[in-house]
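Usage

Read records sequentially. Each one opens with the input sequence:
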Amino acid sequence: MGIRKAFLLAGSALILAACGTSQNQNISDPQQICGGYTEQREPTNDEIEMFRSVTASEEASYTPLSVSTQVVAGTNYRFWCRYQDAESSGHCWITIFKPLPGQGAPRITSIEKEQ
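and closes with the structure output:
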């Protein structure tokens, strides 16, 4: 086998191992799915600060309650929030995309109000 093929096989094995699970992990656990969102958790101070700066220009008032993240070419943050606007109040999902450093500012990609 050529050196190039050996490197490709070794690299593929490393990538597959990084996405695999050990015997002690639950395969249905969202934190263990390669490319999926983590479980909802309490937002960190940095995440709350980013959330507030991104939602400051919105007409409604939003309060983040929990967040899950997904690593992409940057990071998607999916916040579970309480909202209040002129007509109603309730809960919603707000997804914020934070690009890699030097690729732009975080921005809202979706707001889904619960009915």
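Summary fields computed downstream for this record:
- Residues 24 and 107 are 37 Å apart (CA to CA).
- The chain has two helices and four strands.
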